[in-house]
Design a protein that fits this description.
Blueprint lengths: L1 H10 L5 E4 L2 H11 L3 E4 H4 L5 E4 L6 H8 L6 E4 L20 H8 L4 E4 L14 E2 L2 E2 L1 E6 L2 H13 L3 E4 L6 H16 L42
Parallel strand pairs: 1-2, 3-4, 4-5, 8-9
Antiparallel strand pairs: 5-8, 6-7
Length: about 230
């Protein structure tokens, strides 16, 4: 996920920096996608406005520790709290989400959930499906941070959808398991989501019928008055 996003962001003209536990590996990965820098996690986020967290769930605590103080930076969470060795079996954290746990582990960051429900192979291809642009759901508590991430989503050709507060990750993370299942069972077919919209009819919207309801004065149909 991280390299695929980095490659697309670099191609879109963004200054991309790749961090790794192994600085040499970070440099190699950066060179492979045309990123501006590669090295350690801490070095990679120097002067960065947005940090993308794209590691296995078990690596999240150590990665956040290696990043250090984030000082109000936007932290894009593309992870999913899957059990080790699984990409469909979510850990049960009760009435919370992985994204909310990340926010608690990095309280100085502005965490935004995005791209977690996109199967990694999709990030190596166009989000255009015969003229229909696939959607990416974006959730976060900080409005400015969320708008920043939605702009990045649009830069990469996806349709950003405001999914509300960070607590919406409680629904987005199980959605990732569904998308993984669909792709594994697809026999080569690629899947993505598109949020469809239209104005409500008869619910007070612009197209609502504003004629007052009336009740017939006569007897019900099929019955004669006594």
């Amino acid at each position: 996920m991280g390299l695929a996003l980095g490659r697309q962001l670099a191609a879109a003209g963004h200054d991309v920096r790749i961090g790794s536990r192994d600085p040499e590996r970070g440099r190699e990965r950066a060179a492979s996608i045309g990123a501006a820098f590669g090295g350690s996690h801490g070095a990679a986020i120097v002067d960065a406005e947005v940090v993308i967290l794209a590691v296995p769930w078990r690596a999240v605590p150590d990665t956040l520790e290696a990043l250090g103080t984030l000082d109000g930076r936007v932290l894009v969470d593309v992870t999913n709290p899957f059990r080790a060795g699984s990409s469909v079996d979510l850990l049960d954290y009760g009435d919370t989400s992985g994204a909310e746990l990340i926010q608690s582990m990095a309280p100085d960051a502005r965490v935004v959930k995005a791209w977690n429900h996109v199967y990694s192979a999709m990030l190596r291809h166009s989000p255009d499906f015969d003229g229909t642009t696939a959607s990416v759901f974006v959730a976060g508590d900080d409005r400015d941070a969320k708008e920043t991430v939605m702009a990045l989503v649009a830069d990469l050709g996806w349709e950003p959808v405001d999914a509300g507060e960070l607590s919406s990750a409680r629904y987005l993370e199980p959605l990732a398991a569904l998308m993984t299942t669909l792709d594994r069972n697809s026999r080569g077919t690629m899947h993505a989501l598109r949020l469809l919209r239209r104005e409500r009819v008869g619910a007070g919207g612009p197209e609502a019928d504003r004629t007052p309801a009336t009740v017939p004065a006569g007897p019900p149909p099929g019955r004669r008055p006594a």
